Amino acid sequence: MPPRWKRGDIHIGVFNPVAPPDIKRLSATGKFVATPKGYEESVWSSTLECNMRNPIFAKREVRQAMFHAIDRGFIAKTVYYGYARPGTGPIYSPNTEFFTADTYKTNFDPKKAASLLDAAGYPEEARRQALHPEPAGGRLVHRERQDRLLCEAGAGRRRRRHQPHRSRPAVLDQAHLHRLRFRPGDLQPANPSEPVPSTTQYYTSDGIKKGVPFRNASGFHTDEVDALVEQIKVETDPAKRKALVVEFQKIITLEAPLLPLVELESITVASTKVQNHSNDPNYLAASWYDIWLAS
User: Fold this and answer.
1) Which run of H or of E encompasses 261?
2) Could you tell me if 154 and 128 are in contact, meaning their C-beta atoms sit under 8 angstroms apart?
3) Residues 6+ apart with CB under 8 A from 249
4) Cα separation of 9 and 93, whole Å?
5) Which residues contact 262 (CB under 8 A, 6 or more apart)?
6) The pLDDT of residue 165
7) Residue 218 scores a pLDDT above 70
8) For residue 167, is pLDDT > 80?
9) In whole angstroms, what is the distance from residue 248 CA to residue 91 CA?
10) Could you count the other beta carbons within 10 Å of the beta carbon of residue 234?
11) Count of H helices and E strands in the chain?
């Protein structure tokens, strides 16, 4: 157990304040509670983002294959100790208003991934040379995870020496990462309950801005999606608007420009003395005016 928590120096921590094993240890003492409440408006994911400017990833079959090649259930269970859920599409599963499971499925299936890559013109040796995903800066665990899982479909990176390449670091910082134009990368977007513009900006052409990496950095664009999002913006009938968002999800999962690998479950850890916390769907931005500490 972390010493400062054990001594009682810290009463509450938000947004995964300790390592996942320590969350379980703290909760087991009976002196602390761990809750996912308060993050309904800020669900995060670890997302694979394909670069559509690369002629390889401009092929839809290649993008779909990347997602079939990764065991997202394994990642959620082992890398994140169960504090995550396999990702499915652009709207995350806690969003009860708009989420649908009726989309194109990219379940873990290495054989299907290999078949899609073959059909796209990348037999095994070719794809081992071509497909090199890059993790976001500083996330070594992501690079090791991608190497291990993608190799099952023959899409793993070539083994590198541990020494950094002369021209750039072995694990890229954000500046280096976003200068790479021809590889898939790792993105961690947040997903609020309202899809426009926080979610849709990753898929519409107005999000393609030079030098702006945290919008539509993949370069994905179709007139159909642009028109659909414009309809979502102005539709006021709740049922019709939901139907439009459902159609948006179906198109995006089929096209697969980027797809959440796992939806991350954010946790608040608090002493049992802390009262009235985690009572706002965006607790990180709440005022906390009504929180108090029992004697």
Assistant:
1) strand 258-264
2) yes
3) 89, 90, 91, 98, 99, 100, 103
4) 36
5) 45, 46, 72, 75, 76, 79, 80, 84, 85, 86, 87
6) 44
7) yes
8) no
9) 9
10) 8
11) 10, 10
